[in-house]
Amino acid sequence: MFQVTAWGIFGLASVIVCWALAWVLMRVGMPGSVARKLALLLTVEGFALLTTGIWYDFLAPEFHDRSVVSVLGAISFHAHTFFDCVMLALYPPFLAASLRTKLTLPFSTRRAQIALAVFGAGLFVAVVSTPYQIGMTLLYAMMASVFLYALVASIHAWAVSKPGIARTRAGVFALAFGFRDVCWFFVYAVATWIVWGGIILAEEGGAYVRYLDLFYRLGTLLYVPIIAYGILRTHLFDLDLKLRWTIKQSTLAGIIVAILYLVSEGADRFFSTELGDWGGLLAAAVVVFFLAPLQRFAERVAGAAMPNTQNTPEYAVFRKLQVYESALSDALQEGGISAKERVLLGHLRDSLGISEADAAAIESDLVSRAGDVGGGRPSRPD
Q1: Is the torsion defined by CA of 112, 128, 69, 9 positive or negative?
Q2: Are 237 and 35 in contact (CB under 8 A)?
Q3: What is the pTM of this model?
Q4: Range 6-240 has CATH code 1.10.8
Q5: Phi, psi of 189 (to 5 degrees)
Q6: SS3 breakdown of the chain: % helix, strand, coil, rounded to 5?
Q7: What average pLDDT does the segment 120-140 reach?
């Protein structure tokens, strides 16, 4: 009934890396932080990838014509449409929270986020209740537009960033998400042409869809390690994973190495199966060539993801204070600390073993610095 295929493994790997990084970010991120927003986005993205028909790639050919497969296919189609619409609602607010530029500012308000959620729900209903060509064109056009917007926004954020760590972070963000945005924009744009070209159900349509799946999965499979690299080396999203007691440095570094090994070592077999020996050899060579710089990055990260750190009590205390300061800074940026946030911060302070005096000193320093920049932020009501 089941079989192992290169396409299936390739797709499953893209889902696993999405959920693996989502788990890490959910574990180390504070409620409401950019890390948590990205974790939610990656979780939804994993489901969107999974419902493209990855399960179908593991079915033996003799089971492809079974009625239960048709039912599962219909369920996958509706589920994939749903998760696409959810991504439409989540991606622009995530960009607004992480980039904070004029291009993304309109999506930072609660009203805009509610409007996006309502629009996503309405789009899902419209897609499943209208003729196939109309519904798919509407969905694919919106998805392509969102990823094109995201690409422009990330490049713009890099262009306007000041030289230094901010520009480096913006560059890593633009490289990672830009690669995925290009791949997914291409997939949805071409998919629209396929729908109106009338070949999606034809004999040759399978080949088009197959290679669109390749770009779809490859976009995720490679951008997740770049994000992980950015978090490890540039503290992207203000996440510092140097805390030995929070997570071992080998976790993300191991993800990077494992993914790149999977892609580089599997490229020859994968493309040889699909394109023949010579075509597969050429395609594998191209993949490995472009992966080589990133693979060297991965090896460096795996060996030195935590430079200049010592597993001493003094270092642990220092890092705990930095974690509390980062959480407190995020809370202050939202317009003041509410009563609920104050309780959460109290729990965090207790779990880290930070005294009330030290916590008060950190808060006083942050408020003082915020006042120097543009006025302090008082506590806000719930």
Answers
A1: negative
A2: yes
A3: 0.65
A4: no
A5: -65, -45
A6: 80, 0, 20
A7: 91
Q: Which residues pair with 330 in a beta bridge?
A: none
Alpha-carbon distance of 347 to 313, in angstroms, equals 21
Percent of the chain having pLDDT more than 90? 23
pLDDT per residue as tens digits for the range 308-356: 444 456 556 766 777 777 777 767 765 667 777 787 777 777 777 788 8
Angle at which helices 132-160 and 165-197 cross, to 10°: 160
Domain segments of the chain as ranges: 6-240, 313-374
Amino acid at 250: S
Task: Identify the residue whose tokens are 């034809």.
Answer: 202
Asked whether the beta carbons of 29 and 39 are under 8 A apart, the reply is: yes
Task: Give phi and psi for 59, each to the nearest 5.
Answer: -90, 140
Which has the closest alpha carbon to 284: 255, 299, 259, 263?
Answer: 263
Q: What is the mean pLDDT of residues 222-226?
A: 85
CA atoms of 30 and 40, how far apart (whole Å): 13
